[in-house]
Amino acid sequence: MSYLLALDAGTGSIRAVIFDLNGRQLAVGQAEWKHLSVDNVPGSMEFDLTTNWQLACQCIRRALDAARLSAADIQSVACCSMREGIVLYDRNGEAIWACANVDARASREVAELKEIHDYRFESEVYEVSGQTLALSAMPRLLWLAHHRPISTAKRQPSP
């Protein structure tokens, strides 16, 4: 018989949930994770990608064990994640920067965007995306360009 696995990477935890093909939940593996604050970067909340990957694998294993299934029994995997968490990779597929959706380091960039666009920009962004500037990716990417230019340079596409 075939089963489905959903991997849900939330703000405070990760879950692996196994369903049968009728949508009945069979098992769950869940683990809390923590975000890292960066010294001298107020409001920062970065991902610990190595630890988080290990937690995801543990959750999958727990769910499979609880359901008494093997990986071969899984027909399909679906993943979802927290709003606008960001992970940037270099050309070799190595992560160079990662932050959570609730990372609040870019307050200066939020103010800058509001001022540049006569304070109407946030309303326009909200109408289209449902996100305020404080939690959207745009100011965090600007922060990255202002404060970590080497990361910005590394993510440029190959010529």
TrEMBL record:
In its keyword annotation, does this UniProt entry include Transferase?
A: yes
Looking up InterPro entries in the UniProt record yields: ATPase_NBD, FGGY_Carb_Kinase, FGGY_N
Instruction: Look up the domain of life of the source.
Output: Bacteria
Gene3D superfamilies attached to this UniProt entry: 3.30.420.40
Give an example GO biological process: carbohydrate metabolic process
Carbohydrate kinase FGGY N-terminal domain location: 3-153
Query: What are the UniProt keywords, alphabetically?
Result: Kinase, Transferase
GO molecular function: any one? Answer: kinase activity
Which PANTHER family does the entry mention?
AUTOINDUCER-2 KINASE, SUGAR KINASE
Q: Which family does it belong to?
A: Belongs to the FGGY kinase family.
Q: What protein name applies here?
A: Carbohydrate kinase FGGY N-terminal domain-containing protein
Species name: Klebsiella pneumoniae
